[in-house]
Amino acid sequence: MKKKKYRVPVTNDGQQYKRKNIKKDCKLISQFHVLNKELEKLKTDTDKQISKKQKMKVITKQLQEVGGIDTYQATSRLGEFKNGSTNSAKWVVRQLKEHNIRSSTPTKLRLLDVGALQLNYTKFKWIESTAIDLNPSQPGILKADFFDLKVQSSKAYDVLVLSLVLNFVGMPHRRGEMLKKCTQVCKQMGYLIIVLPLACVNNSRYLTHDHLIAILDSLGFTLTTSHNSRKLSYKMFQLTKESTKTSFKKQIFNNGTKCNNFSIVVR
Asked: What 3-state class would DSSP assign to 249?
């Protein structure tokens, strides 16, 4: 009997890809997210400074023990292949082409790739891409914090891509702040593309597909297209109106014992 061969992910970087490591990789990513969330929570904690510093030191050490940001990024590159069987950039470019999204000026379409692990869009001559990350994994990716970006309205981007970024932000209210920041960085009638683990929208106690759309709609973003792969949720929105400045608190939509706690809070 002929032995079945498995495709090698485009993000392999020459390393051996083993299907048996999927559970191990998922565990590593989960650990990193939990520890990162605890670290973010401590930064806003009102606890005594000495106790706070000690706790942060312990968590930082634990983050390093699971491999640190470099291991997380490498695992995430493989994880994108395992979870969605494709690079998110391919879906993004396909949607831009299918919806005939081009720059409104003679210049190239300006795209901001937030939390980029690779230079996904440089090969497309009609796209002027800027890739940013807190800890760049390769040359060409700018070291920058999305929350600190200062963008003039005339320099706003045609397209923003948040691929597996929103779920990396530890605190629910910070996720809401990230979405609000998008209204400042994206030009009017521009596009926002959000890619999340599918479980964040179909197996969360505090978030559903409809609730996510309601949050974005309140910020002025209208859903253009949506797609689910085996493990990923892809959504493209267009900034079509002004924000209504509606707040969204944490509320229960599903109460199953196996539901996760992913949520977005808008203040």
From this structure: coil
Judged by average pLDDT, the poorest of 96-110, 197-211, 215-229 is 96-110
Report phi then psi at 145, rounded to 5.
Answer: -100, 120
Nearest one of 10, 169, 159, 178 to 80, comparing CA atoms: 10
DSSP strands (E only) in the chain: 109-114, 127-133, 142-143, 157-163, 186-197, 221-228, 232-239
pLDDT band, very low/low/confident/very high, at 168 (cuts 50, 70, 90): confident
161/182 Cα distance (integer angstroms): 10
pLDDT tens-digit map of 24-61: 545 544 555 455 556 566 666 655 555 656 665 664 56
Distance (Å, whole) CA 265 – CA 249: 5
Give Dmax over CA atoms of the chain in angstroms: 65
pTM summary value? 0.74
* Helical pair 22-43 and 49-65, crossing angle rounded to 10 deg: 160
Exposure string for 94-122, b = 16+ CB within 10 A, e = fewer: ebbeeeebeeeeeeebbbbbbbbbbebbe
